[in-house]
UniProtKB/TrEMBL annotation:
PANTHER family reported in the protein's UniProt record: AMINOTRANSFERASE, AMINOTRANSFERASE CLASS-III
Entry protein name: Aspartate aminotransferase family protein
Taxonomy, superkingdom: Bacteria
GO cellular component, one term: cytosol
Cofactor: pyridoxal 5'-phosphate
Family matches, as Gene3D superfamilies: Aspartate Aminotransferase, domain 1, Type I PLP-dependent aspartate aminotransferase-like (Major domain)
InterPro entries, alphabetized: Aminotrans_3 (IPR005814), Aminotrans_3_PPA_site (IPR049704), PyrdxlP-dep_Trfase (IPR015424), PyrdxlP-dep_Trfase_major (IPR015421), PyrdxlP-dep_Trfase_small (IPR015422)
UniProt lineage: Bacteria, Pseudomonadati, Pseudomonadota, Betaproteobacteria, Burkholderiales
Molecular function terms from GO: pyridoxal phosphate binding; transaminase activity
Family in the record: Belongs to the class-III pyridoxal-phosphate-dependent aminotransferase family.
Keywords, in A-Z order: Aminotransferase, Pyridoxal phosphate, Transferase
């Protein structure tokens, strides 16, 4: 299926009166609606039957490709058998099986899996676990949480508080959770422009955590949360040695380290987790998206044994030890989709496949250097970004134009501000990788 449709009609006849779209310029969307009606493998089909190559795996989540029969069948079977089971004080077999399968691919020791339904919930769960852990150990004064500038940790109050995106926080700034601070982000254009993979410069940026330890007293800090590779703010790849250094500082001060692997988990970087790729083990790891190929909302937190045991053993026998959970935690259909997805990853070796394709992806994305507006290019695994020069006085407008041009030419990419981001499903072919970046090149020239 190589055919790229030349022209995509942006029109549709859906009634737009009622649906308030999330993270969308609703007025802008109404002027140029883009409706997707079906998908298979690497392609979406739009409302007017145009095929669009999915260069972003939906929202970094459909790693096994769209509408996989194995997942559809597993979900259907589960719906017929057990549509719902209360997850509090009760269980169903698939929840335990899914936790086991997930634990098998998590870093050693992170084998206690708590289920939620979105990345945002996973983050808030992990933050609460960190606080519960310290309190259970008699260190209830450790309540400070540290996030990172340009971090995205979802949209719950915990997530936007530790998150580092101004636009996500601004309207709610009076009600963010107290006692939160941020270390500096890891991007420095002067030192790392056009880095391939991990930049050599910048391990010392982790020392910014020592600044906050000196400021607040480390015995008041509960946890630090970072995305190993910041995704939504434009694929900011950690400098070599940075995450190791962050781990050392956390360990030294008794601070828990949380990796938000909502994007990086399940093969995006060529391994099950970024933790495995970088050889750095956090205390808590959040996951969502590709854990069940985004078929049914599902997320989770993998907790290390010491965090889990401290919380569970910290309460009297029979009592609920962690006052937290969701009506849909470990939902039977989500668990069924999760098991089917994990089996696809295993059987088809998709994580290793992504690792094998990474050099081709790197070559093709970096071939855009020197094209109109291109200011920086970054990549790791099957994750990449092309940062564009902003149009004067209109941040984001350039990338939006390029995004629309790509869409018109049959390629769906993402954009955030003036950064184009790419993260195709792990089933992408070498030819499709070429097609994606050839299309972006054409789009840049046409916009220019
Ligand atoms: N953490 C990270 C790193 C993410 O990228 C995202 C979503 N892109 C989230 C959390 C939030 O996930 P959700 O949208 O499922 O709440």
């Amino acid at each position: 299926m190589n055919a790229i449709t030349e022209k995509i009609s942006l029109s549709t006849d859906v009634d737009m009166a009622n649906f308030w779209m999330p993270f969308t310029g609703n007025k802008q969307f109404k002027a140029a609606p883009r409706i997707l009606k079906s998908a298979k493998g690497m392609y979406f089909t739009t409302a007017d039957d145009q095929k669009v190559l999915d260069a972003s795996a939906g929202l970094w989540c459909v790693n096994a490709g769209h509408c996989r029969d194995e997942i559809t069948e597993a979900v259907h079977k589960q719906m017929m058998e057990l549509d719902y089971a209360p997850p509090f004080q009760m269980g169903h077999p698939l929840a335990f099986e899914a936790a086991k399968k997930i634990a098998e691919v998590m870093p050693a020791g992170l084998d206690r899996i708590f289920f939620a339904n979105s990345g945002s919930e996973a983050v808030d769960t992990a933050l609460k676990m960190a606080l519960a852990y310290h309190r259970a150990r008699g260190e209830g004064q450790r309540t400070r949480l540290i996030g990172r500038e340009r971090g995205y940790s979802g949209v719950g109050f915990g997530g936007i508080s530790v998150g580092g995106i101004l636009a996500n926080r601004k309207a709610y700034s009076g009600a963010l959770i107290p006692g939160v601070d941020h270390i500096s982000h890891t991007h420095n254009l002067a030192e790392m422009a056009y880095s391939k993979g991990q930049p050599a410069w910048g391990a010392h940026l982790a020392d910014d955590l020592e600044r906050l330890c000196a400021l607040h007293d480390p015995s008041t800090i509960a946890a630090v949360i970072v995305e190993p590779v910041a995704g939504s703010t434009g694929v900011l790849v950690p400098p070599q040695g940075y995450l190791q250094r962050l781990r050392e500082i956390c360990t030294k001060h008794g601070i828990l380290l949380i990796f938000d692997e909502v994007i990086t988990g399940f093969g995006r970087l060529g391994k099950a987790t970024a933790s495995e790729l970088f050889g750095v083990t956090p205390d808590l790891l959040t996951m969502a998206k590709a854990m069940n190929n985004a078929a049914i909302p599902m997320s989770g937190v993998a907790a290390s044994r010491h965090v889990h045991d401290a919380i569970v053993n910290g309460s009297a026998g029979g009592a609920i030890e962690f006052f937290h959970g969701y009506t849909y935690s470990s939902h039977p259909t989500a668990a069924a989709a999760c098991l089917a997805t994990q089996e696809i990853y295993r059987k088809e070796g998709l994580f290793a496949r992504a690792a094998g394709l990474a050099p081709k992806f790197e070559k093709e994305i970096h071939a855009l250097r020197g094209e109109p507006f291109v200011k920086d290019i970054r990549n790791l695994g099957l994750m990449g970004a092309v940062e564009l020069q902003s149009r004067d006085g209109a941040p984001g407008a350039r990338a939006y134009d390029v995004f629309l041009k790509c869409m018109e030419k049959g390629v769906l990419a993402r954009f955030t501000g003036d950064i184009m981001a790419f993260s195709p499903p792990l089933i992408v072919s070498e030819g499709q990788i070429e097609e994606i970046f050839a299309t972006v090149k054409k789009a840049l020239h046409e916009v220019a």
